[in-house]
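Issue 218. Parser rejects a valid record. Input:
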Amino acid sequence: MMPKKTLKIGLIGYRFMGKAHSNAWRQAPHFFDLKRDVRLHTICGRNTVEVEKARAQFGWDHAVNDWRTVVADPEIDVIDINTPNDSHAEIAIAAAKAGKHVLCEKPLALDVKECRQMLQAVKRAKVVHMICHNYRRIPAIAQAKKMIEEGAVGEIRHYYARYAQGWLVDPKMPRLWRLQKQHAGSGAHGDIHAHIIDLARFLVGEFDEVCGQLHTFIKQRPLPENPKKMGRVTVDDAAQCIGRFKNGALANLEATRYAPGRKNHIHLEINGSKGSLEFNFEDMNRLQFFDNTTPADRQGFADIIVTQKDGVHPYVGQWWPPGHIIGYEHTFVHTIADFINAVAEGQSVQPTFEDGLKNQQVLEAVEHSVEKRRWVKVK
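Output the parser choked on:
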């Protein structure tokens, strides 16, 4: 057997998402049949001490402070971007020009203009590109997609989604970069609303028009570097929108960081002409299905425990025996595994930067709706 070629990875960013991605790069080759081996070549971050700790903890070969060093390194094949949103475009465009394949965290960029520039760059360079909407690769979500495509729910009429967190309820929480428009682009809207918009596009289809509202509950917060001083919050704390899909289905979405008791609560319900699907991320190995075609005396939501092997359920067959559940970190492993094989085959892998652009177009349409106080077409 011929030895596999090795993909050398450069990771930009080492905190929350850097940690999740580091684990995924390490785990994917051990559990999935991949067409390339992987080497964790270089991790990058601005804080020398902290990025060196991350290098040692996660098993990277090298640690550097300047992302340009990683992009310019001829040994590196893939650039994985896990930085604040305002640097995504510059890094991704430079990586594409250097001939690197690019994986980028969501949202793709600060605005539609930057997304278009990123998409043009990766297309021009003919490199593999992917935006990390990891929730698509929750096995229960992938199973829902399969059931929808097979016609289990019939013609879709409603998509309801709520993404609720509670980490900003305390007014003493510092004004982090995620609360500054110049760095984040938006607040809950671009951070978590983007996820349920992507799942809407993945499961139901493209949006036609939207009408939304954005709200900031706490207008000022303590500065991290000087808690006695206050800084202005320039992004939304909560986002809501109703919408219509091009296929005629209706949408109702809400995202908030002000829901006490909710840590990372994603609730989806899809209603169709033949049945309904319901999913709750706090019970992520379970998918509920109501089959409206069964006799009335036997109807009710059925629990599908998405843990079956041998191709019965997506992804989970690579892990443990049936009934043994998986978690959040596995969604990144699934994403990385698909990305590695796409690079090896020179094929596209969804969601691409084009999906990132379409997601941003929906986000901006909601923002324009808020500004104009009316329904807005998604362009």
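Fixed in the parser; the record now loads. The chain has two domains: 6-135, 139-283+285-326+358-372.
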